[in-house]
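request received
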Amino acid sequence: MKLVLTTEQQELRQAVRGFLAAASPLPAVRAAMESEGGHDPEVYRRINGELGLSGLIVPEEHGGSGAGYAELAVVLEETGAALLPGPFLATTLAAILLRETGDKELLPGIADGTTVATVVLDGNRALNGAEADVVLSIDGDRVRALRGGERTALTTLDPTRRQALVEPGGDVVAASAEGVARARDLFAVAVAAEQLGVLRASLEAIVAYGKVRVAFNRFIGSYQGVKHRLADMHCKLEQAESIVRHAAWAADEAPEELASAAALAQVYVGRACFEVARDSLLLHGGIGFTWEHDAHLFYKRAKADEVLLGPPRIHRARLADLLEL
Amino acid sequence: MDLEDYRQRARAWLEANAPGDRPEGAPDESGVAAAKAFMAKLYDAGYSGITWPQQWGGQGLTQAEERAFAAEAARFTLPTYVFSIGLGMCGPTLVDLGTDEQRGRFIRPLLRGEEIWCQLFSEPGAGSDVAALQTRATATDGGWVVDGQKVWTSVAQHADWGLLLTRTDVEVPKHKGLTMFVVDMHAPGVTVRPLRDMTGRAHFNEIFFDGVHIPAENLVGQVGDGWSCAVTTLLHERLSISSGVGMGGQKDNPVAFDALRTTVDTGDPVVRDQLVELYVRSRALALFNQRLAQETKAGIFPGARGSAAKLLLAELTMFQADLATSLAGPEAVAHPAEGGYGGGLANAISLAPAMALGGGTNEIMRNIVGERVLNLPPEPRTDKNVPFKDLKTSGGLPS
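response:
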């Protein structure tokens, strides 16, 4: 079991973190979310080009770098922490599904950044469904792909990432019962990695505020009423990170452990992420309730992520089944 | 020898040598004798002090071997309770801070179970605020004389040696006038009295020091540097508690997930979901502890993050005992004289608060995580720059 990042993974983290801090800081996130397309195409050109993130997990023979899910988790933690707007997660979920089911046709376009893809989730919803070039849907053990089709934009709680109602169907591009099952677990791991980033950034924001905000002639972080809640939030971060590293390791190295590790990741990290984002907002006081402050963006992303793959109870029920309770 | 060989040899050894009975917390004299005999076998087989320096009697191996052995040992309940303070706290402190003479004298007998150790920090007036302690050590010819009282001392009734924190200077601020010693628990003037706790048993003791002489060579670290020595011990304490060193596994714990799943009705969806919650909390902490262990091996010292693990363990301990008794219902609180299932649950709910109090309360753990991990500003302190003799005590001002 590998729960600690390798030197290469730490370098990947620094590269993505440094890039996003410079190219997509929170003021740029706000500008992007209010723009017509919902994201900054220039940022995506550089993410896909300079950093090669669109091809990160695409096998080398299809033009990607063939990295593992542990590397993907490192990247998603950073895009989550930065609240990166746009279809990065959508295309990543599509890449996971295609890689696991052995597609050859669509992966090269995803790897080189020319194809924006998404996957139909429950209720014909899809992340970034209005702007995706290709909509993938799971039909039994087959994967179908549709270019075009009906797209109806939805109004989302989370202003940093869009969703749409889409039409499932199209040509069968790959088929594998095992691949589809694995892909569903890997979606849970990928979302949990993003949630870990949202959790971490929410905690960092309120810890920083606790060191500068003064009330009653003291920094608010010095009060035990605040400090003890931040300590509890840190405990959630430590456990969430451990669970995500384990799930990503299982995805790469221990397929027999993946299903339960993935269900655990959604059950624990999904809830912890929302709770920390909520408490971060609350501890900011009234300013946290304003549109201008960023706390609500993290709060809304956390809630959107918590229910992205279905109501949280389905993950708890799946975990109970896997534990044979 | 590769790791898999090591693991298989450890398994074979444990199957041949681990005793079958579950030890009931602090053992009596015959239990201690049996525990010592087991510890000697464990040491002679090379499984005590796996990562400790070879020079002082350890095996000089890595965390990988330690973890491999711990993974095998988790299937057994080993009678290591009376050695847990020495192995988890006193020994590591001496390895870090002791003189070569002290390491040479004390480490090997500690690892072999020939000598039992206790830790003497807390006092009736110095619990969370341990630097407020008042036990005095006064310099004398060839050493020191100690007078005072300690409390909450686990396994002291069996201990041969104690790691003792004393006040050697009342003219300087509280943290600056402390000094650490090794004290002989059999020395004249040491009185050990068991304290009956809420479980009805005596898990710990109160200790009285009445003119106890300590030779100069038993000084640990420097005179006046006792606080930083104590911080070293407490770091080891929290890490050892959270990682379960010498604490036995969850194997025989009737309120842990593995036991509970066999005793409750998981056909009830509410019960089933409550068990999922227990699994999630248990697994989250287990993975965090494994990550800390891997980081330690990679050279990242967890430091104050061990306090987060200890806090989480305290909360999990309370949660699972609370859940198990609630799931069981009336039989958890009224059981036949011979104990049985209900007796196990009653014991668990009685014992549960211990983890949230011993080794630092949950509130102290949260202060440590807040101030040393998150670097939040401290509470304003009125006691840091004042000579100790001028500070308040709980009974009023010292005379």
